[in-house]
Structures are given as structure tokens and as C-alpha cells.
Amino acid sequence: MECIINRRAQFSASHRYWLPELSEAENQQLFGACSRFPGHGHNYVLYVSLAGKLNKYGMVQNLSNVKQTIGREITEQLDYAYLNEAWSEFSETLPTTENIARVIWQRLAPHLTLVKIKLLENPELWAEYQGNGMEASLTISTHFSAAHRLALPELSYEENSEIYGKCARPNGHGHNYHLEVTVKGEIDPRTGMIVDLVAFQQAVEDYVVEPFDHTFLNKDIAYFAEVVPTAENIAIRICQLLQAPIAELGAELDKVKLIESPNNSCEVFCRQVAKNSNTPEKAAPMLASR
Q1: What was the pLDDT predicted at 232?
Q2: Catalytic site positions
Q3: Considering the entire predicted model, what is its pTM?
Q4: How far apart are the two ends of the chain, measured CA to CA in Å?
């Protein structure tokens, strides 16, 4: 039987986004505040995912050995380090979150049966790498607050209540939505970036957060006058809104995750949305226990 196990580790380190072949003005334009001298730091959190068959001891690998390997090969070398000078790889490609994840994979792969490296720079930014050459993914998280009502206009209040439960009440209700947007693409061999992070964050702010925040979705967002604003349909709409702006930045919109509450969330893979975006459908009935 094959299983996947995960081991968490952490290290604190600093880095600077700076290319010596560019002028100070060019570096500032490309990297913004991340180009400032002498750099800045993060408390990185690392998740190492391993796969394998269970041995006679009921383990994929001995976690004590995994811990020692991660310590020896990664955290003991990077903790309290200046990343630009810690490893030779970072003199060629800058130590962005996505590139650090890639290099960590390369350094651990001879020792562990890896399936994924996930590296969090902070709780609102992380990268994942799965051994696919220069391809990686980058996720940002943000939030907005909005109200909605779940009801089909052609049904009575009683019929909507059968489908949507309390969510069908006439005056609606609100959520503090937590949003995660993931893009994927090739890591630039010099800058270490999949996408301009500032431009990525700004696109999400301009196309989603600003229009949706502090609205009654059914009434203030034209799309939801015809489409029931379930978490699923909101996530689909966010995919539709971000497809073109993310493509213009040179990356591919991969996934949107919308957390409606600690009990309810959904994930939408945006490539599938793009294939079916010509005719938006109303939401299928949901369980009344939402």
C-alpha cells in the first residue's frame, strides 16, 4: 500500500532581489521594495511530502531519519542565513519563494522519495514545487467581506428553504471570505519569478477584492443577479475574472480556493472553468446544512 507523509520544518533567513547587471532604477522597477539594501527576512515554513509503500514497521520512511535529513541538507544551512550567498544556486537564480522550493527539492531528492515541496514565506504567500523542471506554482491569500442570499427566483421561499436552508432567508447573511489564488508557470532562470508578485497581487485586488468587498453580492454584482452566489459559483466567477489579467502577466491561473467559513470551502481548477465559461449555469442545489 502506498502512502504520502508530510514533514514540517522551519528556518529564518534573509534575501534580496537584486541583479548586478541592472541599474538601481531598473532593480527598483522590477523588484520594488524587495530590492532594498541590505535585504529583508522571513520566518519560512517548509513542508516536505514523501511517497512510498509501507514497510513492515508500518512506515513509509522513518520520520526521525527524515527530520535529520531535512536538518542536515536544508535547515542547518539556511537558518539565519543570507540566502543570496548561502547556496551557489542563488547566484544564478534569485532566491524567490518559488525558486527556493525548487532548489530544496534538488537538494533533498537524492535522499528522500519526494512528491512535493511547499514553502511558505508568510501566511499569505507560498510556493509549491513537484519536480517538473522549472515549473512551479505560487499562491497568494487575501480576504473580502460580503453578504449573499441563496435562492432561485423562480421558486417560492418555502422551496428555496428546502434547498438552501437558513441561507434562503430574505435579507441574506454575510461572511468574511478567505481567498487563495494560485498561478503556475516557468521560473525565470535569472529573476527566479513565475510572475511579477506585485502585479499579481494588484490584479486580485483590482478584479476581485475591490469590486466584491462590502457588497450584497446578489444586488451589487450584476453576474449574481442571475447566478446564485454559492461559494462554488463565487469561486467560478473569480476564475473568470482573473483568467485574462493573469495571462497578461505571463502566468497561468491554476486554482481558486474560497473559504466561506471554518466549516465550508471550495476549490475550483480554472482551466476547467475556462473550457465551460461560455454559458454560466445556476448552482446545483446544496445541502441545507450550509
Answers
A1: 97
A2: 167, 214, 260
A3: 0.92
A4: 35
